[in-house]
Specification:
- This protein is of the alpha/beta class.
- It has a six-stranded mixed β-sheet, sandwiched between helices.
- Helix 4 crosses helix 5.
- The radius of gyration is 19 Å and the shape is globular.
- The chain starts with a strand and ends in a 13-residue tail after the last helix.
- The relative contact order is 0.16.
């Protein structure tokens, strides 16, 4: 199977050298890859590198990021703008902070559509369709609301709808459930899984929350101090970790290492999604 994205990467910041060191990561069509690790391990730097946003943080990258036959590190910013949001989309941790408080949600959806489409009249139909896919009730009502008029969970669904407007091949979710309560977090994890299956969209799920990673992802890569220390299938990594750092992460879970596999399996079964069209909408 050919990889959708192949990454071989080292990254330095102006004030912090060796943030990433010879990181190797492959993402395949239609899979959900979890990138796990503690805060400061370099997870978000990988996302910034893939999206061509590293220079805004005064970072420099060496290596290559192959996507669709192109090395993203060699593209100009003009060419990256054609990729970003259309072929590769991003969902961030703080949904309300990611939306412009001064603009109605419909205006922001229209801007996201027009960034990659010359058909300006199509945006509303596509926005309503995206809202239906993320199961927001009364899409027209949400289009006329301001961000302050929606909950955090609703705002995260709106951001996901915005991210899938152009049906990207890869969605990067960077700590996308970290700001949510437990119930909403479980709903968003279900949503990612449904969209992955329904749209055949690969997902890079970046998180320090091991339970979320284990319940959602097909494969897992564990990042520590800028290096991938372990990778493999979710079951293998969490049930039979090879590396001491992975075992340390598992030992930090509330129930201890001997109950982890059992708890993860129970959570995964709870999060098994129904098809996209059978989910009830969120008011």
């Amino acid at each position: 199977m050919n990889a959708l994205l192949q990454l071989r990467l080292s990254v330095d910041y102006a004030t912090n050298k060796g943030v990433l060191r010879d990181v190797a990561l492959d993402i395949y069509d239609g899979e959900i890859l979890g990138l796990a690790g503690e805060s400061g391990s370099g997870k978000s730097t990988i996302a910034l590198s893939i999206l061509g946003l590293l220079e805004h943080k005064r970072g420099t990258a060496q290596g290559q990021i192959l996507f669709g036959g192109r090395d993203l590190l060699r593209l100009t910013q003009k060419d990256m703008r054609k990729v970003r949001g259309r072929e590769i989309a991003l969902v961030l941790q703080s949904p309300l902070a990611s939306l412009n408080p001064a603009l109605k949600i419909g205006t922001q959806m229209a801007e996201a559509w027009r960034a990659h489409s010359s058909d300006g009249k199509e945006w509303k139909r596509r926005a309503i369709e995206a809202f239906e896919l993320v199961h927001l009730a009364e899409p027209e009502v949400f289009l006329n609301r301001y961000p302050r008029e929606v909950s955090v969970g609703q705002a995260q669904r709106i951001l996901i709808a915005m991210a899938i407007l152009h049906r990207p091949r890869l969605l990067i979710a960077d700590e996308a459930t970290s700001a949510l309560d437990a119930i909403t977090q479980a709903e968003i994890l279900q949503l990612f899984k449904r969209l992955n299956r329904g749209l055949n969209m690969a997902v890079l799920f970046i998180s320090h929350d091991l339970l979320s990673v284990a319940s959602l992802c097909d494969r897992v890569a564990v990042l520590h101090a800028g290096t991938i220390v372990e990778s493999g299938s979710t079951g293998q990594v969490f049930s039979h970790p090879r590396e001491s750092y992975t075992r340390k992460l598992l030992n930090a879970l509330p129930h201890g290492p001997f109950k982890v596999a059992e708890d993860l399996q129970a959570l995964a079964e709870q999060l098994e999604p129904a098809p996209l069209e059978k989910q009830p909408p969120v008011a």
